[in-house]
């Protein structure tokens, strides 16, 4: 009945409010009653002492500091026996001698385990920048009640299965060595070892939090010397050391000894012969450069074809004109510590208004340009110059990749004629469906002093077999990726029909390798598979494990592949239309540049997508209003850079993506603009008419006479007070209110962005686009703290390898002279 129920409730409430009747000195007294509002039995030590009751308060509202102060005040008012777990923390010698025992004489299992759990929790809470201070009088003591509350369910199971067998419980007694080892582990982490975004919450006063993986990361407090927060710069330091160690393992000093450039394979072209290959524009569009912190002088520049401006004395930015829209660009790799001249290979269309159909094959003249940038440093730069150019007849170039390592040798290496010292091996993807390999010499090794020439290739790679003829059935080749681990003998390519082909460059099979009458090789793939329903826009190899590959297709899918099981992808993600992907070394996913044609409102831009092993959702790196044409990542700086249709070059420092990136807060603090290109109306007469507007035309001849490009550069030497500086405010405004003018020629658009992969120039970034103006910038603020220790060590090691003689004798001995 209702009366009986009410009576029962009142009886239960009376029992819950009763105090335990057993005295502290009577261990055999009746079982203690439950305390009000807690629902758990009161804890008593083995000698029967009762800890003071917990202070009332709402669960989860008090911080750790407040709980420690509350416990200290209670101990001062009413001294109680010190819990055994606190005794073990205070000193290893006292803990070893003061272990609590049961009436039967065996060690107390529960107290020992609680002590170990407390030490583990303490190691997670303490920062790695200081050791825990020794206990003194008046010092705050940790509260073991909070630890026991967290482990309530585990402790109850232990109490239920607790036995009186001393042999069983002996393993749970912490010895002096265990306690000392736990104390050493607390301070063994480096100050900038691992970091995740929850550290920002700790700094902002939200209390300590652990990541979703259950591991607590060291707190990185304060600001770095460059102005960024230490939690942002910590992954940069981590990735730079990791990149150096993995390159020592996976990179080679010398590969492909048979593929040496030969002097008689190069033919210098006359002016009339080279004319069909040269870009049509002889002068660049008008442009000006405004640098942050420097008063604008209002000078308009017009650079001749294949010429460059002098680098700025303070900002070190370099600008040069290549003659047409840039659609392919790549740095030439060099060994760490070589202090060698840096080179950039690029391709541009012959005309500013040139268009190409992606369907079908087409050939035609193409010009590969190799530009020398000198020995790039963080405090000095040289004027860029065209080293030489290679004329080809395979149509336009969609992608090019250098062999990652083992293809460079010192320019002064002793070679017997007709051999020349090798600069690198370059693979080029053409619109006629072929992939062509070139062995490029150092510019100084060319005997003929000519700027343009034709060269016989080392090998031609095409899909099919020796019975399929010369025409490729897969369409144009849009993307390339060289195997990142030595011996770099595999090369992958993506084609128009969605096919991915993989070649073995060192194969001796008669079915895969055919020697041509001119001495070059024709190679056929040893593996082909249909990766997408449409063109493969981008392909990247995993740098940490060569068994994995990622492809992005025009079918809006991103697929991760295991080359050992190609019957299905590891993961397939259908999102937006991806233009290019970048796979940084330490991460299990890729950063993706996207077109905005299929993007939802507010979600267009750059994303980090996990391969699927960790199960993360896409992390939004940076929003963009227009199409992001290109993206590049730097393993040394843990940074990605992207160029879009609006003419803005944006860089973003990635967080530690080994943990859940969804915990990252305020991602806007991690990205910054490198420069912004704007197309502005221009009056040849010099009149300042405010009503001037840009012409709505796609003809370059009209655009160049009525407009000019204004480059606004960011001061990248320091990031102090960066959120309040004008470039950052402008970038955030563009992200929200940017307008696209798709009814005119996008002369300010950026098509290619590339970070330098070399340690000697790891802070440098090149970019080029529709206007044919290529610019190089140094991210001094990010690169300042990375190479201080790595670069001197690598240079000393390089000097030991090539110290006495200018070149390595073993390289000349391994190279083979061609058969006459």
From TrEMBL:
GO terms for cellular component: nucleus; transcription factor TFIIIC complex. GO terms for biological process: transcription by RNA polymerase III. Keywords: Nucleus, Phosphoprotein, Repeat, Transcription, WD repeat. It is found in: Nucleus. Residues 1-81, 127-220 are annotated as: Disordered. WD repeats lie at residues 529-564. Residues 10-19 have a biased composition (Basic residues). InterPro entries: GTF3C_component, WD40/YVTN_repeat-like_dom_sf, WD40_repeat_CS, WD40_repeat_dom_sf, WD40_rpt. It comes from the Eukaryota. SMART domains: WD40. Required for RNA polymerase III-mediated transcription. Component of TFIIIC that initiates transcription complex assembly on tRNA and is required for transcription of 5S rRNA and other stable nuclear and cytoplasmic RNAs. May play a direct role in stabilizing interactions of TFIIIC2 with TFIIIC1. Part of the TFIIIC subcomplex TFIIIC2, consisting of six subunits, GTF3C1, GTF3C2, GTF3C3, GTF3C4, GTF3C5 and GTF3C6. This is General transcription factor 3C polypeptide 2. The lineage of its organism: Eukaryota, Metazoa, Chordata, Craniata, Vertebrata.
